[in-house]
Amino acid sequence: MAFIALLPCFAQRPPTSGPNPPESSGISPILLIGGGAAIGTASLLHFRSRRGVKLPISERLPTYLLSRNYLPTIDALNLIYWLNPELDSNEYIKATKKLVLPSFPVMEEKTSDENDFFEVMVDYQLLKEKNEEIYTTYLGFSQLDTGALFDYGVSDKVHSSMHKLKELDLIKFLEDQKENIVLQQIVFDLLIALDDVLEEVSEVKDEPEQSVAFMQAIIDNLSEIITDFRSLSWEPSLETDMVNDPHKLLASASQFAGMDSRSERSGINEIMRNPKFKGFAFAIYKRNEDGQIITKGPEVEGRYFLKYVVPALRDIPQAYHSLNGPATYATGLFPPAKLHIAVEDINGSQVQLQNHVIDFKTVFENPQYGRFEEFTIVPLFIPQ
215 with 268, same domain? Predict the structure, then answer.
């Protein structure tokens, strides 16, 4: 019931077009942050009528989706509104009311391993070496006569950013997460970019302010990932050898990862009681001119290839990682973090999305509502 105590009091329908909603550092009811639905604190508003308990619609929808193994993103919430038009004219909904859910294709079972999700496997030692390279580069920068090269504002920002990086105690964090290959990959991407941009600043190239701003964005993104990860309460796995073996952990991230029978999968939910990453499956949907929702068929199946990257690196093409297979369904293993999603069609053309950034943390914050042994479905709206 912990989740219910943190449910929102936000009765408006999420936006259906325009840029991503701005991020907020304050605590508000339901925060539609960068394509994700983040649950904020609020009192539980409900009342009894002759027909039973009613809840604010915006409180009910996120838990309704989570309990049915959908990630409650903006696109997912909009889809539920379109499939249940009566929600537009009401603020409350009966707690027992069944809603119309999308009719996505049945997900075929398949065997997979970590090579389906990662082009290159990184490890703790590689991350440690890259971190040492960054501080070596920073030492060289510190020895420059920055006052003679560019104004002190640039130098102060570099020193401030590096101080923030030091406060993250990155090496200790990575050491504690040696088994989490998914998280290590994301952190490694950020460290590579940070090392490159720090070298640019040290070489005193033109427009250092732009490079420093990028450096700050990288460290801010890294800080957000680590802070969010540390804020979650992790229970130890029932099988400690699985925690120490990244290959076993990857193989148990979803019911489709290297398991050939239902008997093998039956105990996964207990073993992976609170995993630090899990499988997600992206399902494409469209809406035609008549308002009809399209979730199956040649218009949406097998036509789109998805890539992901941490938001700070969205302008660096080589930083993107491909998801496994075309959507619907494209699958990936993600930690509790925000990721920027890019889509290409079968002709290689970029596809514009209304909500590129998706926050996967909601599932990890509320494990009592999800099924960690299965892929969580992520509905993705592609405008016609």
Answer: no
